[in-house]
Amino acid sequence: MSIVFFVLILIIATVFSNALDTKIKFLPRAIIQIMMGLVLSFIPNFNHFNLNPEVFMLAIIAPLMFYDGMNTNIVKLKRTLSNTFSLAIGLAVATIILVGYLGYALLPHIPIALAFALAAIITPTDAVAVSSVTENLDLPNEAMLSLKNESLFNDASGIVMFDLALTAFHTGHFSPVLSIFNYLYVFFGGLIVGWIVGWLFVRLQLLLIETDIDNPNIIVPINFIKPFAIYLLAEMFDTSGILAVVAAGLIQSTQAQSLRLTSTKTQMVSKTTYEIFTNLMNGFVFILLGVSFPTVIYDITNEGRQVSSLGYLILVGIILYIVMIIIRYLWVTLKLANIRIRPADKVLNHFLIAINGIHGTITLSMAFSIPIVLHGKIFPFRNDIIFIAATVIILSLLVPSIILPLMLPAKTYSYSLEDISTYRQKMIEYAIKRVHDADEDPVETQAVIATLRSQQSILQRPKRNATYKILQKCFNLEEKLLQEMVDNGEISVKQQTFYERMSLFQSFQLHQSFIQHFMYRARFYFIKLSHRFKRRIKRVDPLVVTKKFNNARDELAQVENEISPQIFAYLREHLNADNRAEIHWIEEYYRERHRRFQNNTRANEIQEELFINAFQNEYNFIQEQLGKKNISRELASLLYEQVSNDEWVYMQNDSIYA
Predict the structure, then answer these.
(1) Would you say residue 418 has pLDDT above 60?
(2) How does pLDDT run across 18-28, given as a tens digit for each residue?
(3) What is the DSSP string of 252-303?
(4) Share of the chain above pLDDT 70, in %
(5) By the number of CB atoms within 10 A of the CB, which of 107, 273, 500, 577 ranks highest?
(6) Which of 277, 259, 264, 261 is nearest to 221 (CA)?
(7) SS3 342
(8) Please, are residues 350 and 333 in contact by the beta-carbon 8 Å criterion?
(9) Beta-carbon neighbour count of residue 650 at 10 Å?
(10) Paired sense of beta strands 377-378 and 373-374, if any
(11) Hey, which of 526-535, 628-637, 644-653 has the most confident mean pLDDT?
């Protein structure tokens, strides 16, 4: 199958599963994505799917870990660094050793090195998976912070121990002393490489800022390739590529204040690009698990075993999962990680830290990274290990999804949806009043006000039939106004006819389907080209034609300039709660038409000034309400973000003023 087609299918599946997640609230997103992968596995070309382990780690895990590091609060991480390393190194190593011996006892037919490889695979936790399970629950901050920081570094512990176990299996030799030194070199070497290279990338971005060439076309690609370059460089030195990208992400986080000098447009594009990319990558991981699961089951059942062996592997997965929860609970209860928790909340927080050791991307990636072939033969017990790892992943997602809603209250906010709507309306009305008070050109003022009002109905969609009915009334009003202008001797009958033909043409276009519109535009351009050809044959002076066209356009612009304010006034008079979305759409239509006719540089400048003042007044309103304690700081932050997004959309988009 073409890799392009394969990736396209994965993107579609991820988008579809995200859409289902908005409707299916009782299942974590990861479970929905696994189910989506199971559906894909029935497609013929997806049968017997095998993933390239090296590509998986580089293309998916490296950017995900970099993004996690970049979004980590470095101040909180420093404050809890000892606890983080206790969980990420001490707990991880202890879990791998205990679960490794237990796995060997439960699966005596596999080599002990592979039992430790299995333990290393199922030990790392996943903060993204934790968030998908707990996003609607009020999880204590201390527990969530510990889980997030732990997941940054215990991935590397699991990967290093996994590599040591596979090396021991390949060579048949294991040296504890050399293994400890190798572990320290790989672990801290990865941190050092990531710190140095990450710092160099930050300096490069700061240099671009200082030289005023920090546009999105430069910064975004650099940030995009950064985790891949750092991962590959760290692996060249035989250190942990995963820890290197985490360290680079943390360096990016520490320099956030300096990087704020990057242009607003670049910051917005970078943030949005990374959020979309990481969302897709996380979806890929769990969809790939669903796609691969039937293949693993098929391979296990066709190795000359009885189907009952699947049941035993599931039982092993359940036992190992329960034991890991117990180990995690004892680790924090015995204060081997001294987390700052109030005495009354200790038992609950310890249990939450234990049960929220949810496994996801790293566990799956390490399971898939087991070589398919060893010394020319199929790698032994590979499918068993992948199946047990998949069982642990699914259990770690399902169990908290069932238990936590019974223990924790739903997440509460200091504001409601009604509060957001109410204060957003008040904020916009406040800005509109200030725009009115500026006493600028009425048409340009009305254009800005209409755009601001469109923020109020951003969640509403105009109804097609209702819009056309109102629009037809506007066209009728235009005809009436034109006739009055003719009767008063303000315009000629020729100008009236020309304007009515233009209005009729636009009305016809609005009622066309997409195909009709496309065909009409094609016919229009064909006629336009034919007229050019005729003028060349007749040797008509193009300057004469251009002058006539400009004169006709200027005459139409004068007529339109008289009519537009009255159309806007008519729409204002007939605005109500039922037709708000439709009226705003029609205002946008007339506003754009007015702009095309006038093509006035001064008008564009007026609008830009009014927009800048309007957004500043929206910021002032939020600050005023916050000072009076009418709104919470959380609601103020949300409103600030909305205004900032609106400002970026309207002020960065040059086409608005073109």
Answers:
(1) yes
(2) 888 877 877 77
(3) HHHTHHHHTTS-HHHHHHHHHHHHHHHHHHHHHHHHHHHHHHHHHHHHHHTS
(4) 79
(5) 107
(6) 277
(7) coil
(8) yes
(9) 20
(10) antiparallel
(11) 628-637
